C-alpha cells in the first residue's frame, strides 16, 4: 500500500538546524535502504491554484490566505499497512518536533 505523508507548517514548527538535518538524513537513508521511500521533498510556500467552474478555468498565484494550512513537504512511502505508515509518521514527528502531518492512502497503479 502506498501512503502520502504531508507535513504542514504550524505556529510551533521549529526552524531547521544542523541536528535536524542530520537526523532527517539518517531517517531518509533508513527508509530508502528498506525500500519503503518512493519519493520525498519540500514544497514551495505559495504554489498556484487552478480551479474550474463549467468552462471557466481560473489560475491564482499563491501564497493563499491560510498559509498555516499549506503543505511544506511530503513523503510517498510503500508499506504493508496503515499502521506501518502511522509508525513511520510517528518517527518523523519525533525527529522534527511539534507540527502536523496528514497521511492519505494513494490508490491506483
Automatic annotation (TrEMBL):
Pfam families documented for this protein: YCII
InterPro entries (UniProt xref): Dimeric_a/b-barrel, YCII
Domain YCII-related: 1-91
Origin superkingdom: Bacteria
Entry similarity comment: Belongs to the YciI family.
Name of the featured protein: YCII-related domain-containing protein
Organism expressing this protein natively: Sphaerimonospora thailandensis
Amino acid at each position: 500500500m502506498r501512503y502520502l505523508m504531508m507535513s504542514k507548517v504550524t505556529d510551533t514548527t521549529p526552524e531547521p538546524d544542523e541536528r535536524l538535518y542530520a537526523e532527517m538524513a539518517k531517517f531518509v537513508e533508513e527508509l530508502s535502504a528498506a525500500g519503503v521511500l518512493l519519493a520525498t521533498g519540500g514544497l514551495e510556500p505559495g504554489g498556484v491554484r487552478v480551479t474550474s467552474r463549467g468552462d471557466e478555468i481560473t489560475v491564482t498565484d499563491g501564497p493563499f490566505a491560510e498559509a498555516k494550512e499549506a503543505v511544506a513537504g511530503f513523503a510517498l512511502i510503500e508499506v504493508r499497512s496503515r499502521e506501518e505508515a502511522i509508525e513511520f509518521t510517528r518517527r518523523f514527528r519525533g525527529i522534527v518536533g511539534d507540527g502536523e502531518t496528514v497521511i492519505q492512502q494513494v490508490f491506483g497503479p
